[in-house]
Amino acid sequence: MGKNSNRPSRRNFIKYIGAAGAVGLAGCVGEDPGDDGDDDSDGVVIGSNHPLSGDLGGTGTRMDNAVQLAAMIKNEDGGIESMDGAEIDVISGDNQGAQELGGEIADELVDDGADVLTGCFSSPVTNAAARAAESSSVPMVISVSVDDAILQENDLNYVYRPQPPAAQMAIDHADLMPAAVRDAGHDIETAAIYYIDIDFGQSVRDRLQEELPEQDIEVVETVSVDFGETVDTQVTQIQSADPDVVIAISYEAETVELVRAMDNQDYAPPFLTGCSNEALNDRSALESMGDTVEGALATNFALDPTNDRAAEVRERFEEEFDQSFDANVAMTYASTEVIIAAIEEAGSADPDDINDALNDIEVSDHIAAMPPISFDETGENENALAPLFQVQDLEDRVVAPEEFAESEIDL
Amino acid sequence: MDPSTALQYVAFAILLGGIYGLVALGLTMIFGVMDVINFAHGALMVVGMYIVWWGTNELGLSLFLTIPIAVIALFVLGVGIHLSTIAPIIDSSQENQLIVTFGVLLIIVSAIEIVFSADPQRLEFGLGSVQFAGVYLPLGQLYALIIAVLAVIIAWAFLQYTQLGRAIRGTADNRDAAQYVGINVPRIDYLTFGFGAALAGLAGAVIPLFQSIDPHLGDAYLINAFVIVVLGGLGSFPGALIGGMIIGFVHVFGQVFLPGSGYQIAIFLIFILVLLLKPSGLLGGDVHE
């Protein structure tokens, strides 16, 4: 086809591509502010700041539902006892997984009456939201976000994180995984790391590269994946390096792509593991990945399999929302339990009172597979733990440490 | 790097390049004829993806039946979008058209999110791969490459040898002159938009063969498709395929030799170089401003 001679189209085409690139990179595809407007209830309001749309919208929506469910169950049980049965309301904001919306949504939720915040899944978004919470003097309990820097490089007095951060995830993986493999009589000397190339993946990768050599494991290959990519090339790279273990730090879709490419190339490393990998804790994802992931090992925060209440919550969630209950949902629910315990302890909806309670709290009655949750001076959980799972019959089973183990490791 | 590994990378680059070329076809057609920068192209691809996924997984239709269904459905959708949104503003500034197609993108993606959720979806079966001369060829990508090459040949032959194709080319050359010689330009416009959307649908339809899908997957392909359209030459079908191949090679070998997502930097450096050295693209005509 030729060119229309009377329009400066090429220049415009290029100009608009540039504009679109900028818009696309900024992730500005609309906004979904808190849905309830100004709050005038006598209860306590939790502001849930998660990606309800966008690339992370599927998991984000389930996490938001976990917050809703925790509040619902507390209300069904009579509400906040120390506040004469006051009810908990949840207002939700959609951060779309976009960094620039993290703080904006947090501010909107506070304006709409949130007394305490939770969120945000994506680390850069959480970072922005945490700063907004701090400047509003409204406490925020991180639901899921792994980047160490959120709390450890900022002096925040209103932000708390029950889950293990990247450093702890990597330490637990480097500690528990090789020990389990070696205890079962196998050698493990080399590793390849497959990571999603965003803050989350990079921070866990960096820490694993420090921790694995401490356990006499050499990292022989490191490959990255972007959202929406196929990973045939990366699998060939990994195969060429011939590692004893392939460690995947990725979301569900990228883990599924890894497994698909491995299947296509008839490649099966001696061990496949995941560090902070949601797909290996998601039973519907495990089912779709099939036999290739059978026996895979993963460290991640998790539902406590030894706790009957945890099983009840899982069942109720699946019944209520017809969605799968993965590790992110479990951790979000546990974080909301921490918030509710703090409100109960404070006996007040005042953000400063709730913050004071969070500072001193120790929450033993939660559904996560970790010891009682209490926070150090940076807001990190002093007892955070990422237990080791194994995929057995396409279900995630905790195999270490012993106090949370529901099954023996089988290699 | 041993020769067999290098050969494997070359195979992946060709397969990926074919998919990129297919994605760029509809984009280059709509821009070449109508001067409309269709930001909804990625969203139209996503509709094609979900038709194939839903038809196959939920309705139990044959995979190779759902692909033509997606193409036809997207043609109809494209004509509908054109008549309802583009046609009324076809003579206004490109900014207006751009905003409208961006709006269409948001509506389509949001609608898909509402209906199917943002969770990644995948076909319940894998197509597997074949091994040839020590090289693995994933069948999903291989089928996509064959479909891409066939689509280029058919689209090119259609434009060269049919009366409608000649009318489309005439309109692309000069809309005013086309009108003077009796071509029904508004009809050509909606048919072109429909064909472009159908090509987007075809590109989207083959993606579930080898990849998980989600409502935002179109974005991942769209930005590189824009680069390919400029690299191959605006409006050139063979240019789209060649541009796709080049970007496929840069993508794969960039992944091998550059850290992290450095391949994207390489792709955009090529984009800048083309603009500086040959702004008409590899197979584009002369630029008349």
Explained architecture:
The complex is a heterodimer of chains A (411) and B (289). Chain A is an alpha/beta fold and 411 residues long. Chain A has helices spanning 9-26, 57-76, 99-111, 123-136, 149-152, 166-183, 199-214, 232-241, 252-264, 283-289, 308-321, 327-346, 351-360, and strands at 44-50, 88-94, 116-119, 140-142, 159-160, 190-196, 218-225, 245-249, 271-275, 297-299, 388-392, 395-400. A 7-stranded mixed sheet of chain A has the order 7-6-8-9-10-11-12, sandwiched between helices. In chain A, strands 2-1-3-4-5 form a 5-stranded parallel sheet, with helices on both faces. In chain A, α6 (166-183) packs across α7. Chain A is globular, with a radius of gyration of 22 Å. In chain B, 73% of the residues lie in helices and 3% in strands. Chain B has a two-stranded antiparallel ribbon. In chain B, β1 (129-132) and β2 form a beta hairpin. Chain B is globular and about 60 Å long. In chain B, α1 packs parallel to α5. Chain B is mainly α. Chain B has a domain at 24-216. The interface between A and B is large, with 55 and 76 residues.
